[in-house]
Amino acid sequence: MPAAGTPVAPTRPRPPDTTWRRGLTGAVVTALVATLLAFAPATTAHAAPVLLSQGKPVTTSSQEHNGTPAAHAVDGDNGTRWSSAHSDPQWIQVDLGAPAALSQVELRWETAYAEAYRIELSTDGNTWSTAYSTTSGGGGTETVDISGTARHVRMTGTARATQWGYSLWEFKVFGSTGGDGPVIPGGGDLGPNVHVFDPSTPGIQAKLDEVFRQQESAQFGSGRHAFFFKPGTYNGLNAQIGFYTQIAGLGLRPDDTTINGDVTVDAGWFEGNATQNFWRAAENLALNPVSGTNRWAVSQAASFRRMHVKGGLNLAPSGYGWASGGYIADSKIDGTVGPYSQQQWYTRDSSVGGWTNGVWNMTFSGVEGAPATGFPDPPYTTLDTTPISREKPFLYLDGDTYKVFAPDKRTGARGTTWASGTPQGRSVPLDQFYVVKPGATAATINAALAQGLHLLFTPGVYHVDRTIEVNRPGTIVLGLGLATIIPDNGVTAMKVADVDGVRLAGFLIDAGPVNSPTLLEVGGENATADHAADPTTVQDVYIRIGGAGPGKATTSIVVNSDDVIIDHTWVWRADHGEGVGWETNRADYGVRVNGDDVLATGLFVEHFNKYDVEWYGERGRTIFFQNEKAYDAPNQAAIQNGSTKGYAAYRVDDSVDTHEGWGMGSYCYYNVDPTIRQEHGFRAPVKPGVRFHHLLVVSLGGNGHYEHVINQTGSPTSGTSTVPSTVVSFP
After folding, report:
1. Which residue intervals define the domain F5/8 type C in the entry (predicted)?
2. Do you find a cis peptide bond into 731, omega within 30 degrees of 0?
3. Residue 637: φ, ψ to 5°
4. Separation of alpha carbons 28 and 34, rounded Å
5. Mapping DSSP to helix (H, G, I), strand (E, B) and coil, where does residue 37 land?
6. How far apart are alpha carbons 150 and 58 in whole angstroms?
7. Which contacts qualify for 57-60: CB closer than 8 Å, 24 or more apart?
8. pLDDT of res. 97
C-alpha cells in the first residue's frame, strides 16, 4: 500500500510567463520576485501521515473468546485478530491518545467481515460523528479515505456478511498529530557496535578476539558490543565474552545457529576470581564445546538464555575460584551442569542432563532433569513448574528482514519454549522500531514512542535529560549489547504507564550524580488495572548506582502495576569502583513492589543503605532471591532502624495477607565495621497466607553477623567459616 495520504509538496504561486523579465537587471528581478512572494498566500508545513493506532488502547462491544482480544486488531501482527459476538451491531474503537488530523483507515478483515459498517470519529469518546459509511463492504483489505480531527476512531458494524461475528486482523488509523516536526522513521542499520556474521564472513575469530581484548577487564568502561550470527554452522570458534558484550544467534530456534566451539567466560583478568564477571549475555545459539564442556563462569547480570549446549556446562572459573551467579532460562544442556564454586544459581524453564553439587542456594523452577529438593543439604530448591513466565524478546532474521520475536506467556511452564518446534509468539518487523543510536535525545525517543514505534537501543551509552515515557500497550523496549541509559539532572530514567503487555529487556540504567527519586517506574502511583492476560515483563534490566562514577537514587525500581513479571534483574548499589561511599552513592531502597500479583523469578538486589526489597502488594511471589547488605556501613548507628538492628534485605509489609518466596539468601560483609549486628535478613508478618521456603543468611568471613534469619526465627551466624544459618519453612 502506498504511504497513507502522502501529501504533495505545497507550492507557492509563481509569476506567469517569465519572458516579461527579459532585459531587467538581476537586482531588479530579485526585488520584484521578493515583492511578489511577500504577498503570496502563506503555506503551512504538515507532518506526513503516519500509522497512529498501533498498540494504542482499544475497546470493543464484545469479544468472541479469550484468543481474539481487541488488542490483537492493533498489534501490527497479521496473524492475530479480534472477533466479536455473533450479533448486530458490534464495534471496535481505538484511543489515539491525542487529537490527530486523520486521513485514512485500513480494515484488514478475516473471513467474517462487515457488509455494512460506519467509521465514526469522536474527540471525547462519547459524542460521535460519521466519517464514512457503506452498505456494500467487500471484505479483504479495505482502505477508506477520511478527513477530520479526532482522538477516538470507531468501526461500527451494522450488518454481517456471514453467520459469524465481525473479525479484523488489523484496524489501522492513519493521520498526523499536527506538528511540523519530522516523522521519525522506523528500522535502519544497527550501528557500528553490532557485528553480524554469516558462515562465509572472514576473520570472525580475529574480531571476537579484538573486542575481548577491549572488554575483558573494562568493568566500568564505555564500550558496548553485540555479536550476531546468522543461521548456519560456524567451525573452530572460541568466543570469549567480556564486559558489556552480547553474543546471539539470529534464528528462531537455538539450533538454527550452531557453533562448533565455545562461548567462554573465565576469570584470568581477576586472578581466577569470577565474583566480578558481570554484565554480559549469551543467547539463542547451539554449541558443540571442543572439550565436551563449555565454561560460563559468571556472577550477577549475566544471562544465559535460549542456549543449547551439546555437552556439559561448567559454571566455575578455571582453578575453581569463587563465583557469585547466576541465571539460565529456556535452555537445554545435554550433559551435566557443574556449578562447583558458585555460591548460588537460578535455572528456569530449561532441561539439563544432570546437576552436580552446589554451595548455598541452587534454585530450579520448570527444569527437566533438575535435582530433587534437598535444602539445606544439598542446597537444592526445586519447583516442578514456573507459575507464569514469558521469555525475553529477541532479534532474528526472517530471510533478509530483521524482526523482533516476542514469545507468548506460559502458565505452569516446564522445559524450553523451542524443544518441539518454532516457539509461540508474535513477530514485529524492525521497521516498527525506532533504532536508537548514541547521540539520540530523550525528546526524539519520546516522539518515536508517541508515534507508535517500539524502541531498539543499539550498543552504547545514552544520557537522557527527561524521562522516557512508555505509554502504549504492547511496547517493546529492547537493548542490545547492554545498552546503558544514564538519567541527567535527577530525572527518572524510564516510566511505564499502567497498560498491558509492555516488554522491557536487555539494558542497564546507571544512576547519575544528581539524585533521582526513582530510576524505573512501572505503572503510576494509583495503578489498578488487571494485566493478568498480558503482563508487563522486566527481563535482563539492570540497575547500577555508583561504580562507574558517583550516582544517587532514592529508590531504584518501583512496581505499581499489577501482574508484572520481573525475570532476572540485578539492582546494585556499587561496593567497588569509582564514586563509592556510604553517602557518595547514597541509595536507600532497591526494589519496592506496590502492585498485586507480581512475580519475581531471579531477583538479585544488593548493598542498599536501607531496605533492599520492600513488598506492599498482595499475592506477591519470589522464586530465588540473592542479596548482600551494604558493605560500607560506617557503624551500627548508621544502619539502626528504630529499635531494630539494621534493615531487612527483604521486607513484606505488615498490611500484606498473602505472599510466598522460595530459595532466598542474604549475606553480610560489614568490612568497615565488622562488629555490626544485623537483626535478620528477612522480615514478614506472621499470617497463614505469608509463607517462605528455604531461607538462609551468611556472614562472609565473620564481618558482621545476623542474629536471626527471618523475624526472630533462625539461629544466629557466628565465627568466620561462612556457614549459613537456614530456615526450611516459615512460619
Report:
1. 38-176
2. yes
3. -60, -30
4. 10
5. helix
6. 15
7. 57/94, 57/95, 57/97, 57/473, 57/499, 58/92, 58/93, 58/94, 58/95, 58/171, 59/92, 59/93, 59/95, 60/84, 60/90, 60/91, 60/92, 60/93
8. 80
Mean pLDDT of 275-292: 98
Phi then psi dihedrals of residue 656, to 5 deg: -80, 135
Catalytic option among 628, 660, 679, 707? 628
Taking the C-alpha atoms of residue 69 and residue 474, their distance in angstroms, rounded to an integer, is 13
81, 132 contact by CB (below 8 A): no
Helix (H) and strand (E) counts for the chain?
A: 4, 53
* Phi–psi pair at 31, nearest 5 degrees: -65, -45
Contact between 437 and 462 under an 8 Å Cβ cutoff? The reply is no
Residue 268 CB neighbours (<10 A):
12
pLDDT tops 80 at residue 30: no
- Average pLDDT in the 441-449 region? 95
**Cα–Cα distance for residue pair 730/728, rounded to 1 Å:** 7
Q: Among 290, 292, 281, which Cα is nearest to 260's?
A: 290
Q: How far apart are CA 611 and CA 622, in angstroms?
A: 16
Q: Poorest-confidence range of 96-105, 201-210, 460-469, 702-711?
A: 96-105
**pLDDT category of residue 177 using cuts at 50, 70 and 90:** low
Parallel, antiparallel, or unpaired: how do β-strands 167-176 and 50-51 relate? antiparallel
The set of cell numbers assigned to 437 is 543510536
* Other residues' Cβ atoms within 10 Å of the Cβ of residue 433: 24
pLDDT band at 129 (very low <50, low <70, confident <90, very high): confident
Q: Considering only residues 56 and 656, tell me which one the structure prediction assigns the higher pLDDT.
A: 656
Q: What are the tens digits of pLDDT across the range 673-723?
A: 999 999 999 999 999 999 999 999 999 999 999 999 999 999 999 999 999
> What are the beta bridge partners of residue 479?
457
> DSSP readout, 591-642?
EEE-SSS-EEEEEEEE--SS-SEEE-STTEEEEEEEEE--TT--SHHHHEET
618 catalytic residue (yes or no): no
For residues 714 and 731, give the distance between their C-alpha atoms in angstroms, rounded to a whole number: 11
Residue 120: strand pairing partners: 130, 154
1 falls in which pLDDT band (50, 70, 90)?
A: very low
Q: Residues with Cβ < 8 Å from 639, sequence gap 6 or more? A: 609, 630, 633, 645, 646, 647, 676, 678
